[in-house]
Here is the input.
Amino acid sequence: MAVCNAIMLSEVRSGFRIDSEFYKKEYIEKDHILSKINTIPLWRFSKVTDGEHGSVTFVDNGIKYLTAEHIKQGYVDFNDVRFISPEVDQRNARARVNEGDILISIKGTLGEIALAEKSLLPANMNRDVAIIKLFSKAFSGEYITPFLRSKFGAYQLSREGSGGVQQMITLERLKCVLIPLLDNSKQNEIGALHLKGLFLRQKSLSLYNQAQHLLESELGLDKLTFKRPVGYTARFSDTLTNGRFDADYYRPQFAAIQQTVKDYSNGYEPLISIAAALKPNIDPTKTPNQLYNYIELSNINPTLGTVDGFASMLGKDLPSRARRQVINGDVIASAVVGSVDKAAVIGAAQSGFIASTGFFHFRPIRVSSEYLLILVKSKCVRMQFQQQSTGGILSAVPDSRLKNIIVPKLPDKLQQKISYLVFQSHRAKKRSQELLDQAKARVEQLIEEAAAR
Here is the structure.
């Protein structure tokens, strides 16, 4: 039976939107709730603009340049951020990011919201991101951000999207988004939750960076530099032993990394002696109507080594590379050279998920999952992965080459310290996301309570 929704002509919104998508039943219901409380459009208390519309030239270091991909669930993810020069930043001064600004993805994946933190600065952004700069003290970014993430903000952003395959929100439509005028005490309560969530996320990053630094400083990798040689040579006997005749395999920095590991005072050992490398262990096509949760490379947070998303799909719809079933405590690491920094510990929440064959699937033998994560994400292992890779445009490391990867034997106490830091980092990250979501849920609760009075 078809379901339809009818509205009066007098209810047609500004801009004379008459498309059925704009008047979905769920949208109308939320409209009615917001109509029962005091609201104010964004343009009344903020400046709404977007980023650079032209092309930019990137530099090795400078001003962070944000795109829609960096805007996440209440925060900005710096991973893979690129940089522009101060001259480009000056040219696009209207899109400079300040602490407390609200950033919204307005093209592609619509409606991801983030609050700009001090640690983000200096930063600028491209046209796929809108920036809300508040000029009234009646509201704060830490209140507006969870509201826009709530169902009462998200539906407005989704509704204002237009276009075909590539959805986008125009700035004019964004300016008309309605914000509830809640009591200052309620706004402060929500803002405090959001800020605490952001604080814990920064703490999580700090703890994780400490763990990485402990390993790299122990090996001296933090001081290891590589000069680009004019040329280099390899012995013919080595090419026969290694089965590799390509020049890339014999780059001096690869030899230097391996020698650094071999020279470690406490010794070294093969990676596969501390972590079993598991082969693909499931064929979901045999259960075509079973629902699976699928992890691919894009779901990995390379900054913290966690799984931040997944897709739910029937066995018959999963791609042919969905062949690894993981359990709590496993570590997955990208086998694709272009993303060797993507590795993660599988937590209890992801136990039983399916992972792509684009990952190596490790199960710790006599080390902790957290320590193994730091190892496979370290410079010494990542560069060995790069050396062992084969293929053309999309180079990857064959499973058969894992036997060539060596790792240092760190003292037990140091391993334990690294493990503890990663464990605390992941716990802080989890609590951070809980608080950010709690702030969003509290907004929804307060709006519904106010509308019911």
Observations:
- The chain has two domains: 9-181, 210-411.
- The mean pLDDT is 87.
